[in-house]
Amino acid sequence: MGKGMTKSETLNALAEKLGKTRKEAGEMLDAIVGLAYDETKKSGEFTIPGLGKLLKKHREARMGRNPATGESIKIAAKTVVKFRVAKAAKDAIL
């Protein structure tokens, strides 16, 4: 498997595809990312149609095991962010 695109390569490709400057493409990308963060924090989810959905999920406290010693440890409750890939994206890629 090869290496993915860098941010610079992504901005160049976006700018070329949209007929915008690299700076405008960067501002658009930053705006989408900022919107995704804000909306996920506020409502718990953000959907990018055709790509997927960011979800904020609460994990309860649980017991785990230290793999080095085998000792049982308590893992604290926490909130995590998950990304669920849309079926359209899976179909397009696979």
Automatic annotation (TrEMBL):
<dbReference type="InterPro" id="IPR000119">
    <property type="entry name" value="Hist_DNA-bd"/>
</dbReference>
<protein>
    <submittedName>
        <fullName>DNA-binding protein</fullName>
    </submittedName>
</protein>
<keyword id="KW-0238">DNA-binding</keyword>
<dbReference type="GO" id="GO:0030527">
    <property type="term" value="F:structural constituent of chromatin"/>
</dbReference>
<dbReference type="Pfam" id="PF00216">
    <property type="entry name" value="Bac_DNA_binding"/>
</dbReference>
<dbReference type="GO" id="GO:0030261">
    <property type="term" value="P:chromosome condensation"/>
</dbReference>
<dbReference type="GO" id="GO:0005829">
    <property type="term" value="C:cytosol"/>
</dbReference>
<keyword id="KW-0226">DNA condensation</keyword>
<dbReference type="InterPro" id="IPR010992">
    <property type="entry name" value="IHF-like_DNA-bd_dom_sf"/>
</dbReference>
<dbReference type="GO" id="GO:0003677">
    <property type="term" value="F:DNA binding"/>
</dbReference>
<comment type="similarity">
    <text>Belongs to the bacterial histone-like protein family.</text>
</comment>
